Structure formats: C-alpha cells, structure tokens
Description:
globular, alpha+beta, 6 helices, 6-stranded mixed β-sheet, single chain, Phosphatidylethanolamine-binding Protein, 3-stranded antiparallel β-sheet
Amino acid sequence: MPHCIDEQAEQIETLLHLPAILAPIFGLILLGLFHTEAKQHTLSSQDASFCHGELEVIYPELDIYECLIIPKSLREQVSQVWKAPQVYFSTAQKKKTYVLVMVDPDAPNRSKPTSAYWRHWLVVDIQGSALKEGQIEGTSLTDYKPPTPPSNSGFHRYQFMLFEQPPDASVSLTEQEEASRGKWDFQAFITSFDLGEPVATLQFLTQNYKD
C-alpha cells in the first residue's frame, strides 16, 4: 500500500508540473505559427531582396530575421502595444560604433509618399559589443515610434538600416530635422556624415490593423 500511495503522489506531482513544462513548448509553437503566417503572404521580389546582413529585430511575439509581412493577428500589437524591439547583429565588431535607422518610405501611402522618409527611430554611437549581444547602448536622436499606418493607406514598409559610424564622427540632427519626423532627407543625412552603405538591412510590411 505505501508503494502505491507513493506512485500516486508522484503522478499527481508530475501533472502539477505539466503546465510549467509545456508553456515554453507552446510558446515556440505559436512563434513558429506566426512566422509561418507572415511568410505565407507574398512579397514582391523587390521587397524580399531588401534584407541582408543578418540583422535581427525581436518583438515580444515575433522574431524578424528576414523580410516579411506582419500577420494580421499581430498588427495591433506592433502598432499599439509593443515598445522598441530588441536589435541583434551577430557580426557586429566589438570595437566599432554603429548608427541604427528605422524609417517608413511609404508615408502617407506607397503610391504617393509625399511625407517620406518618415523617421521612426534613430540611434547613434551604438557600441558594437552591446549590439552583438542584442542591446542598443547608444544615443537616441529620435525615440522609437511604432508603425501606425493610416487607415486605407495599404501596406507600408518599415525599414531598419544599420551603418558603421565613422571614427570620431559626431552624428546629429539639425534643428529643422528635430522639429519633424516626416519628409526627412535620409540620403542627405547619410552623405553628411559619410555613413556609406548599410552593413545590414531588414524590413517588414504592415497596414492599419483595422483594415
């Protein structure tokens, strides 16, 4: 009898621990389903080819490591709930510094982007050693603003670009640039600070979550 009681106690204890054991597994399954749903939407060859360089952008329920369309089930979260994502660049050089830019080239819509580029995030002086570990340790020139595409404006591209910052360069915005996020002359900014070509790029597409 004591042996049977012990076995029953062990079975009960195992059942009690099942939720804790299975939770991480279910989390991984859900994450995989979200990514599969995102990939099922068709990207144009131009949009699909934008991403290069192993840049990774991590939101609470979505790990973005390739060009994709945000699935409908997550569009409200990315616009209304989630804060600035974690950004990871595995090949960052520890002794270098970087500039991270996030822009919308489709404001207010892709057919007539009269407000492009819309600056969503700009961080400079990012330490390569931190970026390699998925941390953004630098100077924020423009705080993160989530994607909020207007209703009925179609899909917008949200582009992340990572540049190596030239040694001893003091990257900044002009007073005019600081006054508005929209109509940012992104190319002039790149040229002004000799940033060159980005070492890594990533983008996702999303539309207004109510559409």
